[in-house]
Amino acid sequence: MKRQIEVFTAGCPVCEPVVKLVKEMACSSCEVTIYNLAEQCDTKECIDKMKKYNITSLPAVAVNGELLSCCKGNEVSKEALAAAGIGQTI
User: Fold this and answer.
1) Residue pLDDT, tens place only, 5-39
2) For residues 9 and 16, is the Cβ–Cβ distance under 8 A?
3) Is the model's pTM score more than 0.90?
4) Quick check: 67 and 73 in contact, CB under 8 A?
C-alpha cells in the first residue's frame, strides 16, 4: 500500500520550496497529490480536504489522512517529513 501524501499550496514562492522538497523526498512507496488552492479544483475536493484537516495556513502537508504537526501553525521541515515516512520504502 502506498503512502498517500497531500500537499496544499497557494502556488506562491513560499509554498514552492515545500512542494519541491516533498517531490525530492518521495520514493516509490509515496503517492503525492498537489492541491493548488489558488487555482482550486473543479470537484472542490481540495477545499473539502482543507476543511477536513482544519488547515489554516499554507503550505501544509498531510500523510495518510493526517495533517503533519509541523503544519499546524509551524513551518514544514525536512525532519517532520522524514518522521512521517516520506522517502522511506514501505
Assistant:
1) 999 999 999 999 999 999 999 999 999 999 998 88
2) yes
3) no
4) no
Average pLDDT over residues 26-55: 89
Question: Which amino acid belongs to residue 52?
Answer: K
- Alpha carbon dihedral 69, 65, 89, 13, in 10-degree steps, equals -60
What are the residues facing 61 on neighbouring strands? Answer: 7
Q: Return the amino acid letter for 57.
A: S
3-state secondary structure string across 5-63? EEEEECCCCCCHHHHHHHHHHCCCCEEEEEEECCCCCCCCHHHHHHHHCCCCCCCEEEE
CA-based nearest residue to 19, from 38, 1, 45 = 38
Query: Angle at Cα 49 formed by Cα 6 and Cα 83, nearest 5°?
Result: 35
